[in-house]
Specification:
Number of helices: 8
Order of helices and strands: EHHEHHEEEHEHHEH
CATH architecture: 3-Layer(aba) Sandwich
Structural class: alpha/beta
Strand order of the largest sheet: 2-5-1-6-7
Helix content: 25-40%
CATH topology: Rossmann fold
Number of domains: 1
Length: 202
């Protein structure tokens, strides 16, 4: 059966960069990635203005029912088709992504451990600990390029939603994590460390 490792931390902490840097050939095992953000609920029935008002940093925004089923299927050795989210429109796209079962399943996302049913399927956790000021700066840069948002709108999202939701649902997992890495350090050093740690789990 697969080992499920949740990778969590604040938005902009470096979770996605870490996951993208963990090449399967480096680990010597098969690896699949499931991104919690792709499971945002489909809001095509709402206007863009109403969608934009949703608190996407709260667990209620995630379709955990489907994520639980997909994660359980992967653990059991079944391939799944995960949704793909369009962050520019706050809607789920028509695309899906085939994710095969693997020795290690990386569950990446801010809210990865905010649901009890998901927690029951996770074997180990990695927390990417990064100063929130740096996370905000990264999010401003990312959202301007990838999602066409102004700095003012990103700061508003951060102060009214992201930071308080992080404090409530994510920060408490720092002290419980099996491995804590510094998201502000050189990624190559941290990738090597995480890779060695993951190999020791198999």
């Amino acid at each position: 059966m697969s080992i499920v490792v949740a990778i969590l931390g604040a938005s902009g902490s470096g979770k996605s960069h870490l996951v993208a840097s963990l090449a399967p050939e480096m680990l010597g095992v098969t690896v699949s990635v499931v991104r919690v953000d792709d499971y945002y609920r489909d809001l095509t029935n709402l206007s863009f203005e109403d969608r934009d008002a949703i608190n996407f940093d709260h667990p209620d925004a995630i379709e955990f029912e489907r994520l639980v089923n997909d994660l359980a299927s992967l653990r059991s050795g079944e391939e799944v088709k995960t949704p793909v989210y369009d962050f520019t429109q706050h809607t789920r796209s028509a695309l899906s992504l085939s994710v095969p079962p693997a020795d290690i399943i990386l569950l990446e996302g801010v809210l990865a451990m905010s649901n009890p049913a998901i927690r029951a399927l996770v074997d180990n956790t990695i927390f990417v600990d990064t100063p929130l000021e740096l996370c905000l700066a990264r999010r401003i840069d990312r959202d301007a390029i990838q999602r066409g948002r102004s700095e003012a709108s990103v700061r508003d999202f951060w102060e009214s939603r992201a930071e308080p939701m992080f404090a409530q649902f994510v920060a408490p997992w720092l002290s419980k994590a099996d491995l804590v890495i510094d998201g502000s350090e050189a990624i190559d050093e941290e990738v090597s460390r995480v890779g060695d740690w993951l190999k020791a789990l198999i």
